[in-house]
Design a protein that fits this description.
Helix content is 24%, strand content 29%. It contains 11 helices and 26 strands. It has helices spanning 8-19, 45-48, 60-65, 125-132, 148-159, 180-192, 239-243, 289-303, 371-382, 389-393, 399-403, and strands at 2-4, 26-29, 68-71, 76-80, 85-88, 93-95, 99-101, 105-107, 119-120, 140-144, 163-168, 196-199, 203-208, 213-217, 222-225, 227-230, 234-236, 252-253, 265-267, 272-276, 282-284, 315-320, 323-329, 336-343, 346-352, 358-366. The two termini are 44 Å apart. The relative contact order is 0.12.
Length: 405
């Protein structure tokens, strides 16, 4: 078994193969020098800490104990599907019976001239360290993109005393997958913490002279920053798969068992698109920590021939200024919304399809105020339940009771 990509998904898949009893050779290949690690802390704890460290999925000792060969600091450069081999950037060749591509995604590049060394992206631990070095009291940070990564970095920057301007070309922040009512609460939390959020104005030009970055907006406003952090989404890392002739469709196209157009090659995590059963087979690609975990484990099962179909409900979360935002399901599947207040400012929006099915739930509140009910909502979504809207909206009705209905 060979796994290309030593991140969350690839690391979990390697461990799962052993947990499932597979005793043949397992090789995990990564292009970073680190052990497999979790990426969510890169925009959170790694920014707040004076001495950032990776949050490793497994230590060298555990990998050795489980006889998982971890090859780091090299890239997979070609797959020979006929020969069942993978060629690495150091010239070595790995044979495989089953191959898992867990190549993840890369930051979407801002397609304009003028970007220099002070215009940066966040993907790796090295990126996080480089950004962290610029975050201090008095530094000026421009965040381009009002999505999860950009806003988490804005919050971390403010915590360290930097002045922050968030630039979002769309009419509001968190346009993708977050209801406007919840996005507005996040927006106001940032404003209250001193972040300047500019929405609805695109970038006309960027000039990076190596000492500072000047961002000129289409409306004429100019923002000068010591660092511009660009967070405008991610693109799946499909180059290796495409060169090998695998089908690409907004990522490496896989079936419900995460098998690609080659029956001996699987793909999982950010790099693949797959049919989501709970939404009638709608093909999606998810960039989410838990999805990487779940698909890593599922791919391991199916590499061993277990034949289990993907059945999980998407789940996302973000923490900013003590607020926790959690979303289960895909809110764009909804046609109507029911609000349930939980107290202390926390609430959940339930999204219902036209036929009454609960298709998503979006919650926000302090700490873990929404976690339990979002988990119950996730179970209802998985059951394709059709709860009565008045029951969803009433605090007097326990969500758990709806599971038994």
């Amino acid at each position: 078994m060979v796994i290309i990509g030593a991140g969350e998904c690839g690391g979990r898949a390697a461990l799962a193969l052993r947990d499932l009893g597979y005793d043949g050779p397992v090789t995990l290949v990564g292009d970073e020098p680190h052990l497999p690690y979790e990426r969510p802390p890169l925009s959170k704890e790694a920014m707040a800490s004076d001495a950032p460290e990776i949050k490793a999925i497994a230590s060298d000792a555990i990998l050795a104990e489980k006889s998982i060969r971890h090859i780091h600091s090299v890239q997979a450069v070609a797959i020979d599907r006929m020969a069942h081999t993978v060629r690495l950037s150091d010239g070595s060749v790995l044979p495989y019976d089953k191959l898992l591509l867990a190549t993840g995604s890369t930051p979407r590049k801002l397609p304009m001239p003028g970007l220099g060394a002070r215009c940066v992206y966040l993907r790796t631990f090295a990126d996080a360290l480089a950004i962290r070095a610029h975050l201090s009291a008095g530094s000026r940070i421009a965040v381009i993109g009002g999505g999860f990564i950009g806003l988490e970095l804005a919050a971390a920057s403010r915590k360290l005393g930097a002045s922050v301007t968030v630039i979002e070309a769309q009419p509001r922040i968190l346009m993708r997958g977050v209801p406007a009512e919840i996005a507005e609460i996040i927006h106001q939390a940032h404003v209250a913490e001193g972040v300047d959020i500019l929405c609805g104005d695109g970038i006309a030009s960027i000039a990076d002279d190596g000492k500072e970055v000047r961002v000129t907006l289409a409306g004429g406003r100019e923002i000068t920053a010591d660092l511009a952090i660009i967070g405008i989404g991610a693109v799946p890392a499909t180059g290796l798969a495409a060169e090998a002739g695998l089908t690409i469709d907004n990522g490496i196209a896989v079936d419900a068992e995460l098998r690609s157009s080659d029956p001996d090659i699987f793909a999982a995590g950010d790099c693949c698109s797959f049919p989501l059963a709970v939404y009638g087979g709608r093909r999606v690609r998810l960039e989410a920590w838990r999805n990487a975990q779940e698909q890593g484990a599922l791919a391991a099962k199916n590499m061993l021939g277990i034949g289990e179909a993907h059945a999980a409900v998407p789940w996302f979360w973000s923490d900013q200024y003590g607020l926790s935002l959690q979303i289960a399901g895909l809110s764009d599947e909804g046609r109507s919304t029911v609000r349930r207040d939980l107290g202390d400012g926390a609430f959940i929006l339930f999204h219902l399809a036209g036929d009454g099915r609960l298709v998503a739930a979006s919650g926000i509140g302090p700490g873990n105020a929404v976690a339990r009910d979002i988990r119950l909502a996730e179970m209802l979504i998985g059951k394709q339940a059709r709860p009565a809207p008045e029951a969803l909206g009433s605090q007097a009705v326990k969500l758990k009771s709806l599971l038994a209905a």
